[in-house]
């Protein structure tokens, strides 16, 4: 009807193809009116704008509406009505201020258009084309239903989706017999203790934790209020939110009042046409999501014990690569298997609309089978059955739908409920394997048989290759489908046979299967299931994906700082998932690095750019003079070492069991050999074992597993082994032989007689647990003792530098580079300073060295050779600029010959604010030089300075820079505020003072009652302590021992060591160097359930400072510990001796001496 040229000339006209109702020809409608062309304009949906929070008036509007609700009473105005009134008030307020914002947007738009025109017509046309394409993709003008009928226009499209979702979310009415048959083999795993934990009263703290953890800018639900609304205005709305959520969770309010949901349609393909080619994502109200997430957080606590090992999705401690590794090993065994009469097969399944078809009665039946209590299952049912839907078509909600089945994708609870439902399928398959009806595949003789693997709705089955087992598998799947409502998508189902399966058996199974397609699994969970002889060809798609991102036209407008973020956050993240289980070929890593390097240095789309520095040097840390880009090979090794560490830490997991049975059955992982014909994954993990061994250390427990002479257990850098000669002990002596028998104490005399003085002190300083704990292997490069990819990467980089004979420092400039990168200046300025400091700017001298120019003289002064230092500091034109800049720099000499030396001197003498101005002026000088070279225009020095200052102020204001430095008040006195306690409660304050040089620590404890009266105080000194965390741990242990001796049952223990407090309160085992102390404290806390541990920086005791003020003459302890107890104790004398316990015994006084100002009414009892 019309070609593109006609459409361009007559933009106000358009053509529509109508439905042919009486003929096979379809009429064409030519619309000549702009008015008719307007696409559907439905009711405008309210959305709270995050930017409103920056306006002080917004808070006032919300507070007024909230106060009105309180005045009317909570019962007369429920929470959703309150939000509705608030949205109307905010809408009115926004309309009143809209004119100013529209005008500002129009001004910015004009500036943007001018910039686009400056870039050229091609750029402007390209942007407009992309904008038109985006608008087209974001709207649905027509769609085909599952019967092939075409629906056009807003009304018809809405009707098509409404009809489709009505059928999809309508129950199939599964009968009880089908569910009973499916779930009869599930064994209850949820214990009564777990149910008690789940059913404990909900608290306000749980709600606040959920609110803070939510992503603030995620799409809101029908009420229009996202998480940022609650986070920004928590002081106003917090109490009402908490009471509403608690009412929901406790059954006082129906979930239906907050559970209306918008369905937004996400295309599954590039050009979707069918209604089935859109994925429904639910936009729930945040108030419902808070309640749902509180429930989900509790449910996660019992999932590990409730879900079978075959499932690895959404369960703490299990990750997606577990399934990838197990599946790859099984498929590898199938491929290399040449023996045996019977072959094996793997069936890859795909469940169609897995979440949407789950039947609600089936969800509850599974949970009851697993042992969940009635109250918990009833709460879950309320969440999933009280929902109502409206489909968003082009931003407009349609009619309300009431579903009778399905789990919403977007509900925090749905993923956990889905994997619970998958237990029905797992139980069927496991029971069939147990009875011998089907048989899984073993990767080693008499090894663990794997019959299925699950990752959410991705399922892969393993069995013997026979028609009989194929039919039995189909019967089991049919049982699961009838009970759960699931539907097998045969179009995406594939089967793979082992090498020893006969051709006839393959043919029979394929005939039996019908639509199932034979073939290898090209991908499983996004990774290749088979790696051929050419690893490069297998993984070269990663290079192509990186190139697709780089070649995007948008990236050519990025600044240097933007490119840095692009490389680190996007481009280098592309191969990370693959590198977590496969070692990539060196050639591929090198080619990707070359692509990234060219992208970084390229300034224009069609230019290659000058690569001024190798990628290897740019991959150094920022403190080392690089940009912190990843070295892909080292990062690959670190990711693989993580997998090896997980196998070592979780020996009972399925993936660890499979690998041990196949590759190191009679040895440990660290002693494993590569063996013959290994899989590509095992070859990759084995290559990372040297890195893992380098980072592992022993933490002393009972000392029964650590050899004194051969293993790493000392806290000494580099070797971590004993270096002293061994004249007395044999090489098999263990660390436990250095302790007193039957006591968890070091035998100091024996140790000093065997080892050198330095090593003896190190051994004695190692903290020992009072309990019988095993020796633990921890990750040394991390302070927490927990493996991290970051620490492993830096360890691998240091190993690489040592092997090449390189230094880990760059001429001692690490401190300077760190201060430069910490400046609050634009990223482009930081990148400029990096280039200038490393002499990477395109000066005439550098260009001449590249044979690009012949004359190396400065283009401005035409006198001296143009170097970086000359352009930015020594040139007369630069002197004019500096004369009008920072006052401190105006009279400086100009003879510095090295820019880094100049920056180091400036950093030492200037304030941070002045240094930030110097940085932007330096870049302004370089921009002025470029303007002169390319435009023959020399900007004035005042223009350079004013432009630099304006850009700095604009950047810092946009970042919301805080100029006021928050410092903790240092009162130096003894008067501190006291927070009253409940009756019969005590507060124990504890602290430690450490002298690192003498390796001594003074410990102090004060216990008060609910009136603030001191009931007991204690001080103690310890030697051979040189770490603050260990010192604070000893102080807390002393506080607990004192409270236990005095039988104080209700105690709040308060200290200023946040690291120690968080470690003791954590449910995760502490693997740090001082973790033995932490684990002891955890056990003691469990024995006293009414003890609570909190951190507070404003303590009532500071041992050293207070001791000096009360007793300036000093006091030293001859006895290691002193305790004072009294009914009423004067607070100003409570820690007289703690800090002074660090003094030498030679200067000490008699232990019975009391301070001159002692006016205690009760004599203390000294222990």
TrEMBL record:
It comes from the Eukaryota. Residues 247-529 form the Reverse transcriptase domain. This is Uncharacterized protein LOC118348020. GO terms for molecular function: nucleic acid binding; RNA-DNA hybrid ribonuclease activity. Residues 1146-1167 have a biased composition (Basic and acidic residues). PANTHER family: NON-LTR RETROLELEMENT REVERSE TRANSCRIPTASE-LIKE PROTEIN-RELATED, RNA-DIRECTED DNA POLYMERASE. Residues 1143-1167 are annotated as: Disordered.
């Amino acid at each position: 009807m019309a070609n593109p040229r006609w459409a361009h000339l007559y933009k106000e006209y358009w053509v529509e193809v109508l439905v042919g109702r009486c003929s096979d020809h379809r009429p064409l409608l030519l619309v000549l009116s702009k008015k008719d062309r307007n696409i559907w304009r439905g009711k405008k949906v309210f959305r709270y704008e995050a930017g409103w929070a920056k306006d002080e008036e917004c808070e006032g509007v919300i507070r007024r509406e909230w106060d009105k609700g309180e005045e009317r009473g909570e019962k007369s105005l429920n929470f959703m009505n309150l939000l509705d009134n608030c949205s109307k008030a905010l809408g009115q307020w926004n309309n009143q201020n809209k004119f100013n914002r529209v005008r500002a947007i129009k001004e910015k738009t004009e500036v943007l258009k001018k910039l686009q025109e400056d870039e050229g017509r091609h750029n402007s046309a390209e942007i407009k084309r992309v904008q038109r394409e985006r608008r087209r993709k974001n709207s649905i003008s027509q769609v085909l239903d599952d019967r092939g009928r075409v629906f056009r226009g807003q009304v018809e499209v809405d009707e098509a989706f409404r009809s489709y979702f009505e059928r999809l979310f309508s129950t199939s009415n599964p009968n009880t017999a089908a569910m009973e048959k499916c779930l009869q083999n599930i064994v209850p795993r949820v214990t009564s203790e777990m149910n008690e934990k789940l059913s404990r009263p909900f608290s306000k703290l749980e709600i606040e934790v959920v609110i803070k953890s939510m992503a603030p800018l995620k799409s809101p639900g029908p009420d229009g209020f996202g998480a940022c609304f609650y986070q920004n205005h928590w002081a106003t709305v917090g109490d009402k939110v908490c009471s509403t959520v608690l009412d929901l969770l406790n059954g006082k309010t129906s979930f239906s009042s907050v559970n209306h949901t918008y369905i937004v349609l996400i295309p599954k393909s590039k050009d979707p046409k069918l209604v089935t080619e859109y994925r429904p994502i639910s936009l729930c109200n945040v108030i419902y999501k808070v309640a749902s997430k509180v429930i989900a957080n509790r449910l996660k606590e019992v999932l590990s014990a409730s879900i079978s090992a075959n499932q690895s999705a959404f369960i703490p401690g299990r990750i997606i690569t577990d399934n990838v590794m197990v599946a790859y090993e099984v498929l590898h065994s199938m491929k290399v298997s040449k023996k045996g009469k019977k072959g094996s097969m793997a069936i890859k399944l795909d469940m169609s609309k897995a979440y949407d078809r789950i039947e609600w009665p089936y969800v509850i039946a599974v949970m009851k089978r697993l042992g969940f209590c009635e109250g918990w299952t009833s709460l879950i049912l309320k969440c999933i059955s009280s929902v109502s839907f409206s489909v968003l078509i082009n931003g407009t909600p349609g009619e309300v739908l009431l579903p009778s089945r399905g789990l919403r994708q977007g509900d925090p609870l749905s993923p956990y409920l889905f994997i619970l439902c998958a237990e029905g399928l797992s139980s069927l398959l496991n029971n069939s394997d147990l009875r011998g009806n089907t048989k899984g595949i073993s990767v080693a003789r008499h090894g663990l048989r794997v019959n299925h693997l699950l990752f959410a709705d991705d399922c892969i089955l393993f069995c013997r290759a026979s028609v009989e087992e194929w039919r039995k598998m189909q019967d089991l799947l049919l049982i699961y489908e009838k009970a759960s409502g699931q539907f097998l998508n045969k179009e995406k189902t594939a089967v793979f046979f082992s090498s020893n399966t006969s051709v006839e058996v393959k043919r029979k199974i394929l005939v039996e299967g019908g639509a199932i397609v034979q073939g290898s699994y090209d991908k499983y969970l996004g990774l290749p299931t088979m790696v051929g002889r050419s690893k490069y060809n297998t993984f070269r798609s990663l290079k192509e994906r990186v190139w697709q991102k780089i070649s995007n036209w948008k990236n050519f407008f990025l600044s240097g700082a933007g490119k840095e973020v692009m490389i680190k956050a996007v481009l280098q993240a592309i191969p990370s998932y693959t590198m977590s289980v496969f070692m990539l070929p060196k050639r591929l890593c090198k080619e990707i690095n070359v692509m990234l390097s060219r992208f970084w240095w390229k300034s224009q789309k069609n230019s290659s750019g000058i690569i001024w520095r190798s990628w290897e040097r740019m991959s150094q840390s920022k403190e080392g003079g690089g940009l912190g880009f990843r070295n892909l090979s080292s990062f690959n090794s670190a990711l693989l070492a993580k997998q090896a560490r997980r196998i070592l830490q979780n020996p009972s997991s399925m993936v660890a069991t499979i690998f041990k049975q196949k590759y190191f059955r009679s040895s440990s992982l660290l002693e494993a050999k590569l063996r013959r014909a290994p899989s590509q994954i095992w070859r990759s993990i084995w290559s990372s074992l040297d890195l893992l061994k380098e980072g592992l250390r022993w933490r002393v427990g009972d000392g029964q597993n650590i050899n004194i002479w051969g293993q790493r257990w000392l806290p000494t850098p580099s070797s971590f082994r004993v270096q002293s000669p061994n004249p007395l002990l044999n090489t098999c002596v263990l660390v436990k032989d250095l302790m007193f028998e039957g006591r968890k104490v070091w035998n100091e005399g024996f140790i000093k007689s065997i080892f050198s003085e330095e090593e003896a002190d190190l051994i004695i300083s190692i903290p020992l647990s009072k309990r019988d704990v095993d020796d633990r292997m921890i990750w040394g490069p991390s302070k927490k003792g927990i493996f991290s990819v970051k620490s492993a990467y830096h360890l691998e980089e240091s190993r690489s530098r040592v092997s090449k004979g390189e230094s880990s420092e760059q001429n001692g400039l690490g401190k300077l580079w760190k201060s430069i990168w910490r400046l609050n200046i634009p990223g482009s300025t930081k990148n400029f300073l990096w280039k200038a400091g490393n002499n990477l700017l395109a000066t005439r001298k550098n260009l001449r060295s590249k044979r690009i120019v012949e004359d190396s003289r400065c283009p401005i002064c035409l006198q001296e050779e143009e170097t970086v230092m000359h352009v930015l500091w020594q040139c007369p034109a630069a002197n004019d600029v500096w004369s009008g800049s920072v006052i401190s720099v105006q009279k400086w000499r100009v003879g510095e010959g090295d820019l880094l030396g100049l920056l180091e001197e400036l950093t030492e003498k200037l304030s941070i604010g002045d240094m930030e101005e110097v940085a932007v002026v330096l870049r302004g000088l370089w921009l002025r030089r470029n303007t002169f070279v390319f435009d023959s225009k020399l900007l004035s020095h005042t223009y350079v300075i004013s432009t630099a200052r304006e850009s700095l102020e604009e950047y810092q204001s946009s970042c919301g820079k805080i100029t006021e430095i928050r410092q903790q008040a240092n009162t130096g006195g003894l008067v501190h505020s006291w927070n009253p306690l409940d009756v019969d409660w005590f507060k124990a304050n504890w602290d430690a003072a450490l002298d690192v040089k003498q390796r001594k620590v003074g410990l102090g404890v004060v216990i008060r009652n609910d009136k603030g009266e001191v009931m007991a105080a204690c001080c103690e000194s310890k030697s051979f302590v040189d770490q603050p965390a260990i010192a604070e741990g000893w102080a807390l242990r002393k506080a607990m021992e004192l409270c236990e001796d005095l039988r104080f049952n209700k105690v709040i223990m308060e200290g200023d060591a946040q690291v120690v407090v968080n470690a003791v309160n954590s449910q995760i085992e502490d693997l740090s160097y001082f973790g033995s102390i932490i684990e002891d404290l955890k056990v003691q806390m469990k024995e006293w359930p009414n003890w609570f541990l909190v951190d507070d920086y404003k303590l009532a005791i500071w041992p050293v400072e207070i001791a000096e003020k009360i007793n300036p003459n000093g006091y030293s302890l001859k006895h290691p510990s002193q305790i004072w107890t009294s009914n009423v104790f004067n607070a100003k004398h409570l820690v007289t001796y703690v800090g002074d316990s660090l003094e030498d015994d030679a200067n000490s006084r008699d232990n019975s001496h009391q301070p001159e100002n002692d006016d205690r009414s009760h004599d203390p009892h000294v222990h």
